[in-house]
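Input C-alpha cells:
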C-alpha cells in the first residue's frame, strides 16, 4: 500500500492554528454559531430599569386596578398612574396610592387626568371629559373642587356629565353657547314623614338653572340639602300658623347668612354717597376677584333693573337700613330678585335693590358660597 508523502515548502514557518480552530468551533468569547454561520457575539449589557422596561414589581403595580397614583419618595409630586413622567421614577424610589394625596403637588402634565381619576366612574373617557370641561369653561380649580375637595362622583356622556353627591344625583348639560349649562336634579316622591323615594328621570332644578354658568350649577349641587319641613312649606302641606312660623324662621336664617355692609366697613360718615358705600363694600369684600370689577356694577337709580331672567349679584337694604348682598335671578314679571335652594325660594322685592351686576361664566356663585362657609 502506498503512502502519501508529506512535503514541506522550503522556508515555511510553523504556525499555531488552535485559535482559528476554536473560532471555527464557536468556542471564542467573541463569536457564536448562528444557524451554522459564524457571527460576532455582542457582550450582554448591564440590566437596568428604564422607561422602556418594566420590572416585576412595577408590572404588579401597573396591573393593580385599585392603584391610581404614583410618586417618588424624593419628590413632592403626584402623578396619575399612566402619566409618562411617572415612568422615569426609579423602582427603589417608587411609591403608590389608591387615593389622591392632597399634600403632594399635582404634576402639570397629568393634572386633569389625576383629578378625574379620583372620582370618575369612567376615567378612561378622559377625552370626553376634556371636551366637556372646555365647552362648559370649567377651570382647573373647579375640577379639583369637584373630585378632590368635595369627593363628587361623575360619569360623562355625549353632552352631559352626571354627578353623584351626598344622596342626590345631578346632570349638567352644556348648551350650544360656550360656557352656558343647564342643571338637572333627580326626580323623587315624598312619602310618610317627609322621606324621599327616588324615581326615574330628572327635572330642571329651577328657572335659574335652565341657562346658567358652571359655577352657579356647582354651587347648587354643593349646597343642596333636602329638608322635609321646607318641602311641606313649599307645597302647602302645613297649617297657616306653622307656615307663618316657618317663613319667619327662613327670613331670620337668610338675614344671618347675608353679609352686612356695616360689619364689613364699620361706621360711615354722613358725607358718603350711596354709590361710595356700594363701591367700598364691593372692593373691600371681593378684593382681587376680577369678576367683581366695580365698573360692571349698576345703580338702579341710574341704569334701572336688569333684563328679565338675568343672573346677577345684587345689593339691597333691609328693614333696618343695613346693606346685604345675594346672588340670584331677576324676574321682571314678579318684580323681584330671587334665589332657589332646593325647594325653598328666597326673594327680594326689586324696590329694595340698589345695585346689581350681571354674572359672567366664571365660578362666581361657587366662590361666593365658599366665602360664606
Amino acid at each position: 500500500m502506498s503512502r502519501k508523502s508529506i512535503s514541506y515548502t522550503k522556508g515555511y514557518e510553523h504556525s499555531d492554528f488552535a485559535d482559528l480552530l476554536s473560532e471555527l468551533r464557536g468556542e471564542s468569547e467573541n463569536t457564536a454559531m448562528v444557524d451554522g454561520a459564524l457571527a460576532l457575539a455582542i457582550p450582554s449589557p448591564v440590566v437596568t430599569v428604564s422607561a422602556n422596561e418594566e420590572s416585576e414589581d412595577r408590572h404588579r403595580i401597573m396591573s393593580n386596578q385599585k392603584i391610581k397614583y404614583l410618586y417618588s419618595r424624593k419628590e413632592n409630586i403626584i402623578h396619575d398612574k399612566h402619566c409618562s413622567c411617572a415612568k422615569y421614577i426609579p423602582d427603589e424610589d417608587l411609591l403608590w396610592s389608591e387615593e389622591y394625596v392632597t399634600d403632594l403637588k399635582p404634576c402639570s402634565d397629568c393634572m386633569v387626568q389625576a383629578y378625574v381619576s379620583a372620582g370618575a366612574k369612567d376615567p378612561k373617557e378622559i377625552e370626553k371629559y376634556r371636551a366637556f370641561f372646555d365647552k362648559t369653561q370649567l377651570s382647573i380649580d373647579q375640577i379639583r373642587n369637584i373630585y378632590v375637595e368635595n369627593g363628587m362622583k361623575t360619569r360623562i356622556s355625549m353632552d352631559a356629565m352626571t354627578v353623584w353627591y351626598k344622596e342626590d344625583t345631578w346632570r349638567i348639560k352644556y348648551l350650544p353657547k360656550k360656557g352656558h349649562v343647564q342643571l338637572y336634579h333627580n326626580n323623587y316622591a315624598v312619602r310618610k314623614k317627609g322621606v324621599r323615594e327616588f324615581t326615574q328621570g330628572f327635572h330642571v332644578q329651577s328657572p335659574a338653572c335652565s341657562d346658567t354658568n358652571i359655577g352657579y350649577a356647582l354651587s347648587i349641587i354643593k349646597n343642596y340639602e333636602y329638608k322635609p319641613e321646607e318641602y311641606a312649606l313649599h307645597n302647602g302641606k302645613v297649617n297657616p300658623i306653622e307656615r307663618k312660623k316657618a317663613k319667619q324662621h327662613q327670613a331670620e336664617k337668610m338675614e344671618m347668612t347675608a353679609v352686612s355692609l356695616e360689619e364689613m366697613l364699620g361706621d360711615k360718615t354722613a358725607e358718603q354717597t350711596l354709590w361710595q358705600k356700594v363701591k367700598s363694600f364691593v372692593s373691600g369684600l371681593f378684593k382681587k376677584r376680577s369678576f367683581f370689577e366695580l365698573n360692571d356694577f349698576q345703580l338702579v337709580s341710574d341704569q334701572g333693573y336688569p333684563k328679565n331672567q338675568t343672573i346677577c349679584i345684587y345689593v339691597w337694604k333691609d328693614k333696618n337700613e343695613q346693606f346685604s348682598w345675594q346672588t340670584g335671578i331677576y324676574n321682571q314679571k314678579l318684580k323681584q330678585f330671587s334665589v332657589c335652594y332646593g325647594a325653598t325660594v328666597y326673594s327680594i322685592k326689586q324696590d329694595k335693590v340698589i345695585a346689581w351686576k350681571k354674572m359672567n361664566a366664571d365660578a362666581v356663585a361657587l366662590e361666593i358660597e365658599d366665602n360664606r362657609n
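The chain is about 30% helix and 25% strand. The radius of gyration is 36 Å.
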